[in-house]
Amino acid sequence: MLLQSGVVRGAAVQRDRHLEKQPDWIFQFPNKHGIYPSLGHHYHFKMKVFLIDLPDPSPRWSRAQTRHFVAAAKTAAKLLEEKKTILCICVSGKERSRALAHAAAALAGEDASHIATPSNPALRATLARVRRAAARRA
């Protein structure tokens, strides 16, 4: 199962609902200061956390950062194929976590239509490349 959210006030309610489902893995991005925000009181020690040290792509990520993102998406896709529940989290829940959820779903052949796509042009371009690569492998 694929879940996605953020940690800021508006997204925290959704994050807590997702954490109550006790996902197997949490893929988390840091804030602009490089700090990983708290997961709140619903976090359970059995949940495994995969930290992705990538800032918002302003204006875009370097090649190395893009490779790091794709590697995280491949790890998440493998877990989806193993029927694990993963939760993708960034600060606002609008860009990086959405892009990761869609990339992992594309690589795993899963449906992510329940998650909005990111609006950031750099992330949309990265996501398009991942989707094309996944389609070639299928």
The total count of strands amounts to: 4
Give the helix tally. 4
**Mean pLDDT over all positions:** 88
Beta-strand residue percentage: 5-15%
Work out the radius of gyration: 14 Å
Structural class: alpha/beta
Task: State the helical fraction.
Answer: 40-55%
Structural description of this entry:
By secondary structure, this protein is an alpha/beta fold. Helices cover 44% and strands 13% of the residues. The chain is built from four helices and four strands; from the N terminus they run βαββαβαα. Strands 1-4-2-3 form a four-stranded parallel beta sheet. The mean pLDDT is 88.
Topology:
Elements: E1 2-6, H1 9-20, E2 25-28, E3 48-51, H2 63-81, E4 86-90, H3 96-108, H4 121-137
Parallel strand pairs: 1-4, 2-3, 2-4
Can you describe this structure in just a few lines?
This protein has 138 residues and is α/β, with parallel strands linked by helices. Helix content is 44%, strand content 13%.
